[in-house]
What does this fold into?
Amino acid sequence: MTISTAPSQQFASDNLAGICPEALQSLLDANASGHQPAYGDDIWTQKSTDMLRELFQTDCDVYYVFNGTAANSLALASMCQSYHSVICSPVAHIETDECGGPEFFSNGSKLLVGESDSAAALLGKLTPDAVDDLVTKRHDIHYPKPKVVSLTQATELGTVYTVEEVRAIAAIAKRRHLKLHMDGARFANAVATLGVHPSEITWRAGVDVLCFGGTKNGLPVGEAVVFFDRDLSADFAWRVKQAGQLASKMRFISAPWVGMLEHNTWLRNARHANAMAQRLYQAIHGLPGVRVMHPPQANAVFAQLPAACIARLHATGWKFYEFIAGGGCRLMCAWDTQPETVDAFAADLAAASAQAA
Amino acid sequence: MTISTAPSQQFASDNLAGICPEALQSLLDANASGHQPAYGDDIWTQKSTDMLRELFQTDCDVYYVFNGTAANSLALASMCQSYHSVICSPVAHIETDECGGPEFFSNGSKLLVGESDSAAALLGKLTPDAVDDLVTKRHDIHYPKPKVVSLTQATELGTVYTVEEVRAIAAIAKRRHLKLHMDGARFANAVATLGVHPSEITWRAGVDVLCFGGTKNGLPVGEAVVFFDRDLSADFAWRVKQAGQLASKMRFISAPWVGMLEHNTWLRNARHANAMAQRLYQAIHGLPGVRVMHPPQANAVFAQLPAACIARLHATGWKFYEFIAGGGCRLMCAWDTQPETVDAFAADLAAASAQAA
Amino acid sequence: MTISTAPSQQFASDNLAGICPEALQSLLDANASGHQPAYGDDIWTQKSTDMLRELFQTDCDVYYVFNGTAANSLALASMCQSYHSVICSPVAHIETDECGGPEFFSNGSKLLVGESDSAAALLGKLTPDAVDDLVTKRHDIHYPKPKVVSLTQATELGTVYTVEEVRAIAAIAKRRHLKLHMDGARFANAVATLGVHPSEITWRAGVDVLCFGGTKNGLPVGEAVVFFDRDLSADFAWRVKQAGQLASKMRFISAPWVGMLEHNTWLRNARHANAMAQRLYQAIHGLPGVRVMHPPQANAVFAQLPAACIARLHATGWKFYEFIAGGGCRLMCAWDTQPETVDAFAADLAAASAQAA
Amino acid sequence: MTISTAPSQQFASDNLAGICPEALQSLLDANASGHQPAYGDDIWTQKSTDMLRELFQTDCDVYYVFNGTAANSLALASMCQSYHSVICSPVAHIETDECGGPEFFSNGSKLLVGESDSAAALLGKLTPDAVDDLVTKRHDIHYPKPKVVSLTQATELGTVYTVEEVRAIAAIAKRRHLKLHMDGARFANAVATLGVHPSEITWRAGVDVLCFGGTKNGLPVGEAVVFFDRDLSADFAWRVKQAGQLASKMRFISAPWVGMLEHNTWLRNARHANAMAQRLYQAIHGLPGVRVMHPPQANAVFAQLPAACIARLHATGWKFYEFIAGGGCRLMCAWDTQPETVDAFAADLAAASAQAA
It folds into this structure.
């Protein structure tokens, strides 16, 4: 079966990209090794886990699951019971795009949407005050008790929490006896942007559990749940198994992580995607009728475009989402987005924009 | 990172084997196709689904999930509410090896273990009478109401339900208003043994939903849930998504299925594994002290071995499980088990057996 | 053990009142009848069920559960799966005061809060447009699919949906394939206000399931779940049992219903409570600094009071809640609220208000 | 509505009896006290809780729920996560008569049925060895990890664990890091039989949580969940609320407990029921064809009766269950069973037995 490539879709999502060469090579190596123990007792799983511990410079507990919904939902379920609640931003993926996964895995925990001030809200960020408001609002047993704060890093709007911002939220969380969860579907992009050590925006800043995304960064399938607070991972292996998230041929989930972590491929991929977003931003932010919502901090540009431009770009074959919070279009770059593609898109948008103006 | 192959483990489980060449080639092809739509809107998913419909000669609904626990649990949850129950054999994988996955996904459905007559029980099979006994035992609301029968084909003891056996259970199920689920983790091996068309032991015999296993047959990860009764799959896509079983880069789950289904690779793999089990059986069933529990009907030999033999084989590096129901050792063959490996094992067992005798 | 009465608390909630004489007499009668079958096979349960069918002039299915959270949660769970969602108003009891009960019983169904226009929102009502907006907003599998609309009648803000309003929402629900649930914790008060036959604002208007509250209206414990759409109650008896909501000595739950339904006690109680709210409204709505949020339509007055007044009333021993949506105080009347108590409260408020002005 | 008493049903179950006078009087007193705080903030709930603490001579946490299924299920859910398991006897009420309630409330915890030696099994008891076998059988993540042992005291077969037996099981539980739950639906009858202080067979023997049944002993509705290990009851109030088990008019649940606990009514009721079972046993155990399964230790006699006797007794109007484990009939005495009724039943059985012989 043969199929042609589809470059025109390159701004729809970073999960439309394939497997990066380094991850693929590790997968092939793992397959070339004949019979291997199942369920994670293989050397690839050991290796990738060791590498993650090294990466974070701490003796964390690591589990591999199949996708981001499962990673977030299982991590949250390990931190709260059904009658507890999770505080997150209104645009948090766990709230808007996991079809009630967190509620399902926790058997009913409610997500409480924090109301940040408008500046932070536009950036898709939760603020310490928004968290504190929700925690202090009610204490009665007729409402689920807040137990966790969840941050997405980078956010769903392509922005990044600074080290100070993470710390400030962690401080409120600690004071209010909440655990701190980080949805890191694009964690790599945040690290690339901030230029800090991965530990600086995780456990050193007060994060208890990180869902470290690999798929959007070049893996075929699989995310890592990293417990910095190891008390929270008691019996987590049973939870993963029961929830249908334990791969029998685990090496094909973990080996690609080895490829990603070796030689900092994960960071290089992220830097490239981020750079493409910057290139796109530079090329389009001054065009007539184009209103970029904020300078990109990760691998996406969010912009309001004239309806005529959107129609024309779609007609030309370009694919991207329009529905995003605040009315903007989301232009997402991936590890394999080519500068030529960015330039071609920008040229088409410039032409459409000139015509529309 | 390099690693040597580990042929000595080749009888522990069929999920210790790697990816078969045909499945791998499809995965590589899919990766070579650049950006592709996510969440199953890609052409590989369309293609594999069409092929499965052709294979079964019916317009079934097909969903891909990550592993067998998820496939079984989600399929069962689509057929019963929390206050219903599922009838299965005492050695059913859903009962003994999924860590309560079915109970979790259904929010509490109880598994009721059927007591087959001793002949059937030794073969790991459920009988129509065992089903009927459980259904007619109680009708009060203080006990979960039976709603589903679950068969494993091939069974966990390496045996195979005949077409007539499946039909007989389906008849009881129909009469008692139960749905019929088939755990087909080794469905390919059963088809290979019976030499019938796949439809003959599924929907034509009364099966409503089949969990068609691919991993043990040569895939890296991923099983297909095949709904022959399409009423049961209403909104199943939402269920899969919520349960953390929807792959974003779905093509890497579905493309290998294309490779497996093209040119009947799935059946060839199964026939090979079955033949290796027969070869092993022929080589060891007359050895002193060796009591094969029943002639293999699929890809495993179950045999009681003298403790000294077990110890010696393990010391030599051979790996296999001893814990299996009835006290036997399970010697499992895979799609890539080599005749030489079978012969070497048999020779070592013969030597150990002679020494022990 | 003796204890004095506590009239000062009479405006905090209608669930602070005791058992009305008619319900109590039935309970005593039921107790005087010696041994009786358990689990609802007694004649009291039969009788009250027949009476409810007569009351609603239709052959509905009736189940008794212990409280309103259970009634609502189980009713909703019978209408939606975990990956579905329920549309309700932001002040709906199921959203704000059941501690995630609906999410728990349904294993994760999400509540979607409708945004009514401001006039309706101030009255605590959901509008057809608010429902339609939520249903048409998204159709993708990444968000729970709407399956139910839930109305509270009378609402949490003491207002009442007219027959036309219920019908209009039912029409949208039908068009969008949603079931219609009515939280009738204060259903009696709504019927008393509207002066219509109970069937007119339930099944004749398109309601599928009503949770008919008895506790706030004079029962000791117990609510009735009334299924007008009997397809929805398939196996509901098992659901109730599993959920810990089946009383063994059921007669003590159902017999008080007989007392309430005989001679229209339920309606007389509701009329009285409503009249007390009107009396209170008349007495206070013109006082300086007192801003009644809307004329009472059921048994509560919602009013903004000067802080000094609130403090003084509390100091005098009057009890009522201040936290209610929109900032108002809730002054709730019960079946046993005395005119003298209303007058005394109004006098105290008048005095406090004069002093504050 | 008038109804005649039904003395003929007096051996079917102790939950066919009504409310005992002392409990009723307290309920009436509570009702006479006008408005009272809701949700347990009333003085009756405070009083009954204090009395339970005094009764057990320890500062336990006490929660009132509506019935036994809820009490057991919520208590177990507080001790195990969905991927854990609960060890109980094959005749345990949680296994056989709660319609999967424990699995539902815990979101999937599996009940593991212990195989006691035949002597203990005939008495419906779990043994330390049966517990240990299950705990040590498997340690892998493919099977739910045992976390709780549940004993029923008195057992479902009318027998009673001695202090030593409870201690022995508690010792195994402690060694294996299991919590110890006691289903005390008929706890009063066990205390009456053993003649020990209630603390002796609960926390002093190693029990962590007791579900203290009141309904079968003379209450209208409501059981007490008593946490001796207070760490286990963290946030239990939220759990109760979310699960639909928090009574708004709590005083009508708790006040009857006051009546039961004052002047040791609970114990007197239990002694009476036990004495009636002894009287019945003495009257029938030598009759031809009658095989009493074991001398009664609580308030029930289990006996195998000739089919003709059963038919004749039923025809005469006597009601009792036949289905009970081991094939016997269950003859259950209640707090209000009269000696005359026992004698009349015995006489009828004697006549039937003579005729059948």
In short: The CA atoms of residues 79 and 232 of chain C lie 7 Å apart. The interface with chain B takes residues 39, 81-84, 107-108, 141-142, 144-145, 235, 237-242, 246 of chain C (CB under 8 Å). The mean pLDDT of chain C is 95. The first helix of chain C runs from residue 21 to 31.
